[in-house]
Amino acid sequence: MSDESAAAISAVRRDWAAEHREKYLRSGGTEGHIEDLTPVGGRPFATHCLLKYTGRKSGKVFITGLTYADVGGEVVVCASKGGADQHPNWYLNLINDPVVEFQIATQAFRGSWREPTGAEREKVWPFFVDCHPFYQAYQDSTERLLPLVMLKAGSRVPVFQESDATGIRQS
Asked: Name one Pfam family in it (predicted).
């Protein structure tokens, strides 16, 4: 996918993503976890998590909403950026830190993350696409392999607040 196409898709989604993130955070996770994504080729009960990470250049804290699937007790997200030819900023920031914080509905965790490879990735990818079918279109639109990230919960942390984010992602 060209950078121009990715930018156009990003602009359309930006408002929805900001509203979704705000709803999730303001409700403490009672809203925003399950969303109807049928208008964009998803499922009517699509699951969403929040990912909290620190910017590798700015040092600011960001919170991003992502669709997820549960595989063997690990939360799986995809660094798709809507099928753009480059990785999303959240992923580039995440790979610099072995610790991750994420929230599922009304529960937040500090834990670890990893990327499945080989036979495991070949098993996880079709399951993830079955949960969120539009990711296959994202993969088909780019030459890069869309990274899958598996999050493993460790200790509990307080649910995320809007004030936790010292930076606002523009794209």
From this structure: F420H2_quin_red
| Domain edges within the chain | 3-159
| Strands (DSSP E) found in 13-134 | 34-35, 46-54, 61-67, 69-71, 74-78, 99-104, 107-114
CATH assignment, 3-159: 2.30.110.10
Flag whether pLDDT at 136 surpasses 80.
yes
Closest C-alpha to 84, from 6, 169, 171, 170? 6
Q: Side chain identity at 82, as an amino acid letter? A: G
> To which H or E segment does residue 9 belong?
helix 3-26
Q: What is the pTM of this model?
A: 0.89
List the structure tokens of 56: 């590798």
Q: How many CB atoms lie within 10 A of CB 65?
A: 23
pLDDT band with cut points at 50, 70 and 90 for residue 170: very low
Q: How do residues 83-130 score in pLDDT, each as one tens digit? A: 999 999 999 999 989 999 999 999 999 999 999 999 999 999 999 999
